[in-house]
Amino acid sequence: MSEVATEHNRIVDAAARLFYERGIHAVGMDAIRTEAGVSLKRLYGEFASKDELIAEVLRRRTEIWDAGIAAAAASAATPRERLLAIYDFLDGWFRTDDFRGCGFINAFGELGAGSPAVAEIARAQKERFQRYVGRLVRELGAPEQLGDQLALLAEGAQTTAAISGRPDAASHARAAAVTLIDVALAA
């Protein structure tokens, strides 16, 4: 990896960490520069504005989320197990020391009304997740609306865990998902 690519990644990683820990508005470009260990000139050479950097952080977060969900589902043998693996993934994430809620929900809450780019990226990520869950529901042979219901449970668990500080929101959502799946398949 070239030095330029390494610096680019250090900047994005530093911004992601700081935005997630402190909030986007609370973090200035100088704090990001310091955390990344690059000059301000280099930082602005990579990202012409904070908005451009925020968008890159959210794109990276999408890749991380997608990879995490895929890894959780990889060991599951059936569509039902893959659906429930979503909540197992959430449970593990909620129990990490640095869990601060969904970065997309946080960014949208902070900037969505004033930043069409942030709103678009956050909406696209949520739609992508719904499509993923919908695909698993189709593989299961269950009614289509189950996908939206299960995605909503996952989103609600993220918000509940972040606000309440209770990681058991994932296990409660998983139990509700089991019930919804059983009812949908029995219908």
From TrEMBL:
Keywords of the record, alphabetical order, are: DNA-binding
Q: What is this protein called?
A: TetR family transcriptional regulator
* Source organism, top-level taxon: Bacteria
Q: Which residues bind DNA?
A: 28-47
> What is a single Pfam family found in this protein's UniProt entry?
TetR_N
HTH tetR-type domain: residues covered: 5-65
Fetch the Gene3D superfamilies from UniProt: Tetracycline Repressor, domain 2 (1.10.357.10)
Entry keyword annotation includes S-adenosyl-L-methionine: no
